[in-house]
Design goal:
Blueprint (H helix, E strand, L loop, with lengths): L1 E9 L4 H19 L2 E4 L1 E4 L3 H12 L7 H22 L14 E3 L4 E4 L2 E7 L3 E6 L12 E2 L2 E3 L3 E9 L6 E7 L3 E6 L2 E6 L1 H19 L5 H37 L1 E6 L11 H27 L4 E4 L15 E3 L4 E4 L5 E3 H14 L4 H10 L13
Parallel strand pairs: 11-14, 14-15
Antiparallel strand pairs: 1-10, 2-3, 4-9, 5-6, 6-7, 8-10, 9-10, 11-12, 12-13, 16-17, 17-18
Bound molecules: zinc ion.
């Protein structure tokens, strides 16, 4: 399969192109939206002739490469079509807007030779050159580059390569509010998330303060809220990036794939206040962690498997009995009296569900505790 990775490279961006592209996208959107018909179901009534007319009108006075107009139109049409689909399912609110000043750069608009990216800005006259060899952290083992995205400050490049996903072993991961527990090569590992939790808390408090301004200074409040959200995301992402890079390297050494919990929508409504906030955080952390770990592992040729995690922290990994709280972080099996750490239970169960057989750590546990892993489960004395 083909795997991808994206990187942000800071550049001296052609501000005029970014601005003009933003403007034609807005114009194109206004036009295309006027071609949406609402008879029974919404659909786009946009003839080839109208498409040509729009293109001609956008090209008037356009000094940049013509391909940019085509890419702006394609992106706007895609945006409207996506919105129509949502609308027909009753899930779209307001019509779409162009909010981001980003320019999509097709493969036809750039060349890549000897590590240098040469992007056409004005035909045969003006180029943006980016020397990618300066960025030692960029992977060198890629087959090709995908389309680029230019923003006001950076260019986002996508590298692609073909890999065969395979693993001899499987590690499992459970993301909690304050740690990630993993079972790698039979060892239980814990990665602290307190710093990440702290980042979220700090910005939550900042946002609450900004929120309290909204009655008197709505604009300032709105601006601050956006700024804090952006910074929180950046700092939190940064943290998860470092963590997943470390873990991916570890799994590469172990030659191990990853078993992750299949996340579903968590119902917040029944919860309130800080519990609700914590659930949201957990979910954000888990999604971000899984997303980043997955693409990093796939790049290394290591597969990722998602398994149903229902009751994974309440089921005994030895006898499938029901686990109950046993003080602190411990859980105790009502049936076989096994006592295990709450986080460890989840990774043991995930690994059994994903790999189809008991993990090494469980075998060691069985030996140590003198338990039988067969049909007959001996009871541990407590
Ligand atoms: Zn049990």
């Amino acid at each position: 399969m083909e795997v991808v990775k994206s990187y942000r490279i800071p550049v001296e961006s052609p501000k005029d192109l970014v601005e003009e592209y933003f403007k034609i996208k807005q114009r194109a959107l206004e036009y295309v939206l006027s071609k949406v018909r609402f008879s029974r179901k919404a659909h786009l009534s946009f003839s080839k002739k109208e498409r040509r007319e729009l293109r001609d009108s956008l090209l008037r006075g356009w000094r940049f490469s013509k391909h940019y107009v085509d890419s702006a139109m394609a992106s706007v049409i895609g945006l409207v079509k996506g919105w129509i689909m949502l609308y027909n399912r009753g899930r779209a609110k307001e019509p779409p807007k162009v909010t981001k000043k980003t320019v999509y750069i097709k493969n036809t608009l750039f060349s890549f030779r000897d590590g240098v990216l040469k992007i056409s800005i004005e035909p045969k006259k003006r180029y943006l050159e980016v020397d990618l060899t300066k960025y030692h952290w960029l992977p060198k083992d890629f087959d090709r580059l995908g389309g680029l995205i230019l923003t006001e400050k950076e260019v986002i490049i996508t590298v692609k390569k073909m890999v065969d996903l395979k693993a001899d072993k499987w590690a499992s991961f459970d993301v909690n509010l304050t740690n990630v527990t993993a079972l790698i090569d039979g060892r239980v590992e814990r990665y602290d998330l307190k710093k990440l939790y702290h980042i979220h808390r700090v910005y939550e408090i900042k946002r609450q303060k900004a929120q309290s301004l909204s009655r008197f200074k709505p604009k300032t409040s709105e601006r601050l809220l956006q700024k804090y959200s952006r910074r929180e995301k950046n700092r939190a992402r940064d943290f998860v990036h470092k963590l997943t890079t470390t873990i991916a390297r570890e799994l590469e050494r172990a030659g191990s794939g990853a078993i992750l919990e299949r996340l579903k929508g968590i119902k917040y409504r029944v919860l309130s206040g800080s519990r609700k906030q914590n659930r949201k955080l957990s979910k954000w952390n888990a999604r971000t962690f899984q997303f980043m770990l997955e693409y990093k592992l796939k790049w290394l040729g290591l597969p990722v498997k998602y398994v149903d995690a229902k009751n994974s922290s309440r089921t005994c990994p030895l006898c499938s009995g029901h686990l109950v709280a046993h003080g602190g972080r411990l859980m105790k099996c009502e049936k076989c009296n096994l006592i295990v750490d709450r986080d460890v239970v989840a990774v043991l169960n995930l690994q059994m569900r994903g790999a189809g057989f008991p993990p090494r750590a469980l075998n060691e546990l069985i030996e140590r505790e003198g338990l039988s892993g067969g049909n007959e489960i001996l009871h541990t004395s407590t």
